[in-house]
Amino acid sequence: SSDWQDPTNWSTTGPPGPPDNTTDVTIFSGTPFQPVLTANAATSDFTMASGTTLAMGAYDFNVKGKFSNNGGAFTSTGTVTLSATTGTNTVDPGTSSFYNLTVASAIGYSSSRAINITNDFVITSGSKFTIANAAHTLTIGNNWTSTGATFTHGNGTVVFNKNSGTCSLTTGAAGAGGVTFYNLSVIQALGSPVSTKTQTLTGNLTVTRTLLISSSKCVFSCGTGNIVNINGTLTFGNGATLAGGSSTLNVSGSWLNNIGAPFSYGTSTVLFNGVSAQTITRSTATGETFYNVTI
Question: Rounded distance, CA 226 to CA 209, Å?
Fold first, then answer.
């Protein structure tokens, strides 16, 4: 049987029977039947060997230790929750993608490689997540929520690539909270999208290096009453739109709107506060229009 409940489909450090949050589970190469979840499941450390598979379906999978995919493949339309309470814990999905990923751990998790999430990413209040280094890109296909949580960018890049519809970037209540990204890219997955994608910020936001808004039908809204600090360069690409809403944008570097749509200023305030010369670039003769601007 391929049933997850069948202990012959994996090796465990725990007692006989279905694993739980106290049990380390490894799916070894050569397992007679690759396991399939038939209900919500839980483990402590979870490891997949090369060539193995795990079909999670829409069931939830709670991991109270490390998540390590060493050359296997998993599929999911449910939620994987990382919930360690002790130890140093990492997450390595291999080349597979999470559907929903939730970090619910006060001691935190860090990436072991690039991570792709096709739907929602949540860091619960009081929890911690770290991108380990600049080589690890975190790609998210829908919503981000991190109210009351700690995110450490590790000089890595976060990419939002939902192709159409609406999605959110929630770092706290309007005008409060906040997350610091190193590089942040808001794009669309398809090279030639046919529908608009709008991502709206709730809470404050800081980008240390580059905020890139690209793709021809992509809109990034700064939302209502938020503070957006862009300490590096703001770049519009390929017809993309930045909507200021009623937020305040503090820009320390260059404003490069070479091939994007005109700034949708709303009632926003843009403060150019760099300590050296700054450039405002708009590729068309119409220039760029602001509602309130301070230089």
Answer: 19
> What pLDDT is attached to residue 17?
66
Q: Which two tokens stand for residue 38?
A: 């038939």
Across the range 184-208, mean pLDDT stands at 93
Q: What is the pLDDT of residues 18-40, one digit of tens each?
A: 788 998 999 988 888 899 999 99
User: Comparing C-alpha atoms, which of 172, 171, 132 is closest to residue 152?
Assistant: 132
Using one digit for the tens of pLDDT, what is the confidence trace for 67-76? Answer: 999 999 999 9
Radius of gyration over alpha carbons of the chain, in Å? 21
**What pLDDT does 14 receive?**
59
**Angstrom distances, CA of residue 70 to CA of 112, 258, 294:** 11, 42, 52
